[in-house]
Design goal:
With 335 residues, this protein is of the alpha/beta class. Helix content is 37%, strand content 21%.
Length: 335
Amino acid sequence: MKNLLVSIIMPVKNTAQFLNECIDSILNQTYENWELLAVDDDSTDDSFKILTEYSEKDNRIKAFKNNESGIIDALRLAYSKSSGEFISRMDSDDIMTEDKLAVLSTNLLNAGQGNIATGLVQYFSEKELGDGFKNYENWLNSLTAKGTNFNEIYKECVIPSPCWMAYREDLEKCDAFNPNHYPEDYDLVFRFYLNGLKVIPCDKILHHWRDYATRTSRTDENYADNTFIKIKAHYFLTLDYNQNKNLVLWGAGRKGKALAQILIKKEIKFHWICDNPKKIGKHIYDKKMLAVNALENIENPQSIVTVANPIAQEEIKSYFEKLNQITMRDYFFFC
């Protein structure tokens, strides 16, 4: 089995309290042919000092200061300094299982180019985790175990940003870290999908994902709900929207309204349906709200569903099946 070099790309910003545990988990990998490219992004704590100390002890660890500002610039700098055949990303507040690089690299080598290796993740926190995190973890892991991640790509980010590995050539084909689009991890996953990469199934927990109140994904405006709606709409209209079909928007909650505004701004015609009797027959943004059964009278529909309730989603799936409609072709869940 080849022992190819793995380049680990790691942006760092004010994670000094977690950084030793993170880097120690990398040093403890059973797979030893790796390099860590860590870029400090204007930290105000001791993050860069810690990185420098580790780099002086192990030449596989390379510490840099961000030339610009922000996580995308940090990713670009780290990537420009990398030389591995395999590329992976790590978050500086998380922990790798000791076999993470071994499992990912073996799976990727066995599958060959055109594939993405990933693994199961497990959230942890000093405080009790909410149901939302556990539900996301279970949903994400259920997809990864079967390699069906892209089947639900419009719901949420289907590949965890700190737990994937790809051939450098494949990452380059997907334009690596060049686009200035946030959320940058979700954008990259859409580009994996766009370029036809396949997810390798994996049923092992390989990454421990830390949650805490000041984590970037919780506090940075680049990861707010509206940015997710915008990126979903952009890639749907680019990749999966069929202009020969009649577009239908299902749901008039916060996300449904946000998506409706995007479609109206782009002057894209659509029918709008919901199952809320208080809204049916009324106008929102000058669009008349129709009852759900109106879908049966719309010729050749293609639907976007913004209903988040899991039980309701199962009922909606059954309804589409009765209409002989196929997921990721005739209908798409956006939450």
